Every structure is written in structure tokens, then in C-alpha cells.
Amino acid sequence: MIRPCIPFFLCLLAPLAARAAPGDAAPSAAGDWAQYAFDTAHTRHNPAERELSAASVGRLVLHWTKAFRCGGQLYTSPAVSGVRLYVGCPAAGRKAYGLSAVNQAGGGTHWSRNGDGFGLSSPAVGNGLVYTGSREDGRVSAFELGSGAPRWTLRTGGFVTASPTLSGDRLYIGSRDGGLYALNALDGTLLWRAATGGPISASAALAGGVLYVGAEDGRLYAFDARDGAPRWTAATGGALHASPLVAEGKVFVESDDGNLYAFDLDEGTPRWAVASGTAAPVGDQIATSAAYADGVLYLGSRDGTLGALRAASGERLWSRALGAAVLASPAVANGLVYAASVDGRLHVLNGADGQTLFERVVGDGWPIQHSVVVSHGRVYVGASDNRLYAFGLSAPAAAP
Questions:
Q1: Residue 335: other Cβ atoms inside 10 A
Q2: pLDDT in tens, 209-245
Q3: Which helix (H) or strand (E) is 346 found in, with range?
Q4: 145, 129 in Cβ contact below 8 A?
Q5: For the purposes of burial, counting CB atoms within 10 Å of the CB of 176, is it exposed (0-12), middle (13-18) or buried (19 or more)?
């Protein structure tokens, strides 16, 4: 139950509420990492996480590992909802891809589906359903949380490698046909489709009733979330394979030209651009996105560093060498930054100064290329050996 607030507090909230329709949804429960990048703004910041702290993170140990029968690598990050994780994985066979519901406590399988074309799209959870896209046939599908039974499906005109963005009863997802789709999340009805100038491979961010999505034509697009009407476009110097992030009245996105760009939310006016490491090699792409908390952006780089930038200006606050390229997007919780590198290491740094608080090789050191997830006192990372690793504290933390 929400208690009444004093009038002054309500007055402060009124301007925010006016911009909120159709809404910037929070995860389904406190601490749940219920969709890609945690929230619709893609901050990758879990503010409800308090069990892991600078004092306790040194006691992280491997709690369990889960092997998936993937035909390709485990590229997706899990969605965490309550006592379960939902993981999409390309299974053995040309069209045999898997979506699984896994027990959070020990990694046991609750249910698993094959032959549905999953693989690169991280699931989203809400409305009693789990949503995901297919790179095999361009479908967007919803399944019942309890059983995995199919609820609805909609086919786009291209492969779907982007992760869905869920806000209440609306689902937004891009396709490599160049379209951004808005669907009724309950029954899959197409509400509108907006066109960009190139394939969309990354997730769209939602804030203030506006969707922000990058395309491979090197442009960032803003669309009205209600009807898909275009707001503005802004150009970068390379293709956009990374998902945008919204914070502090700006939208941030990393381009294949090796720069992190900041644009004004309302008009798309460029605010600043800074070199984020190295440009994408020929035939490759940059899919690493920043994390944000308390006025600071945290971004990994192909040059093997993790850096902190002031969101207002792009000023670099600190940079730490992690020893190998960082292709996985970091996560932030309780003042800590969680990052993974392609040499198979999990790193936990102090967000204030970049000092390393924890470092460990995950499994046999296979490359880690998907986003780190931090939820309910656990850290989840998936590696190229097609295994999901769950880390937690070695013993319950002492009461404060």
C-alpha cells in the first residue's frame, strides 16, 4: 500500500508524472532484474541490491553452474524474477533453440523449450509471461511463466537479435528489417511499427514516453511511445550495435567509430562525445553499453579498460586496466561496478575510485561477452562454454 505524501512532495513529483505515460516501468519486484539492462532506461543499476557491499563482496564464491546444450555461444543475459531465472540459448541443431526457466537457488531446470528460434535476445518478464525474440525466423513470442506454454507470437520482417523492452502492457522491440515494433504485451497485437534507416540489432530504451533506438545506419532515433511518431534523429560516425541509455536529460550511446555520444533528450542536440577505447574492427561491432548510477557512467572497452565518466560532461573520473577486452556491459549495485572480460574473469570495482575489490576466473576462463546481472545477492555471468555461473556470498552477512 502506498501511503499519502505531503503536498510539497506531490508537487515535486507532478512534472515527472506528466512525462511518464505510457510509463517507465520498474522491475516486477524489488531487486528483480526482470529485463535486459534492468530497467526501461537501460541504466543497469539495481538500487535494491544491498546484500553485496564493499565489505562483503570479497566473500563471493561460486554457488552453482548450469550447462546449456547450446549450438552457439551463450550470448544472452538472464532475466531474474522471484525464485527463477529465464535464459535464452541457441541449442544444438539449426532450428533447435532453447528458452529455459531455472531455479535461482540451485540452477535446476523448471521447464525448457526447444525449436523456438531463440539465441541472441535476452528475455523480459512481466504480466505472468516471459518475452523473447528469435534470430532464426524473426518472431517475437510470449510464454507462460509457470509452464513455458506459448501464449502468442508475431513475426517481423527480419531476424530479431534485440532484447525486448517491457513497460506495463506494452512491449517494444526492434528487428533487422529496420522496424521498431510496439505490441500489446498481453495478446501480441501490433500497435504500431516505426521505420529507421537500417537494421536494428540492439534494444530500445524508454524514458518519459519516448523510445530511443540505434540503427546500423549510424543514427539514433527518437519515437513517441504512444503512436510511433518520429521525434528526431541524430548521426554518429559509425553503425550503432549498442543499446542507448537514458539519464540526466540525455541519451547516451556508443558507436562503432569508438566514441560514446551524449544527446539532448528533447531535440537530439549533441552534448558531448568522448573516445571510449577502440573502434570496431572491420567486420566486427561494438555492442558494449554503459551503466549509470549517481551521475556517473561506467563503460568497458576493447582496449581492456573499465572507465568512469561524469555523465554531465564526459569528463573521465578514473580508468582501470582489466587485462583483456571488455565486451560485456557492466552492472552497478550498492556503489560497486561488476564487469567481465574476454579472458573469462569477473571483476568487482569500487565505483568511487575504481579500486578492485574482487577478481576471479570464471570456470575454465572461457570468454564472457554478455551483460553481467546482479540480483538478490547473486551475480550471474554466462560464458562461451555455454554455462551460466551464479556467484553469492560464502556465508550470510552479519546484521548491521
A1: 13
A2: 999 999 999 999 999 999 999 999 999 999 999 999 9
A3: strand 345-350
A4: yes
A5: buried
- With beta carbons less than 8 A apart as the criterion, state whether 178 and 200 touch: yes
CA torsion sign, 337 to 370 to 87 to 169?
A: positive
Mean per-residue pLDDT over the chain, rounded: 88
Burial class from Cβ neighbours inside 10 Å (0-12, 13-18, 19+) for residue 102 reads buried
* In 286-373, alpha helices (H): none
The letter for the amino acid at 388 is L
**222: its cell numbers:** 527518437
Q: Output the CA–CA distances (angstroms, integers) from residue 109 to 66, 69, 74, 173, 372, in the order listed.
A: 9, 13, 16, 27, 21
Q: What is the distance between the alpha carbons of residues 46 and 343, in angstroms, rounded to a whole number?
A: 26
- Long-range contacts of the stretch 396-399 (C-beta < 8 A, 24+): 397/51, 397/53, 397/56
Grid cell listed for 55: 565489505
| Residues 6 or more apart in contact with residue 101 via CB below 8 angstroms | 84, 85, 86, 109, 110, 111, 112, 130, 145, 148
DSSP 6-66: -HHHHHHHHHHHHT-TT--PPPSSTT---STTSSTT---B-TT--SS-TTTGGGEEEEEEE
CB 117 within 8 A of CB 140: no
Q: How far apart are CA 388 and CA 379, in angstroms?
A: 10
Q: pLDDT-derived band of residue 13, with 50, 70 and 90 as boundaries? A: very low
CA 232 centroid distance within chain: 24
Q: Side chain identity at 319, as an amino acid letter?
A: S
In order, the DSSP letters of 51-83 are SS-TTTGGGEEEEEEEE--BSS---PPPEEETT
The partner residues of 345 in beta bridges, in order of sequence, read 361
Q: Label residue 354 exposed, middle or buried (CB < 10 Å: 0-12, 13-18, 19+).
A: middle
Dihedrals φ, ψ of 16, to 5°?
-70, -40
Segment 141-191, tens digit of pLDDT:
999 999 999 999 999 999 998 999 999 999 999 999 999 999 999 999 999
Find cell 557492466 and name the residue.
330
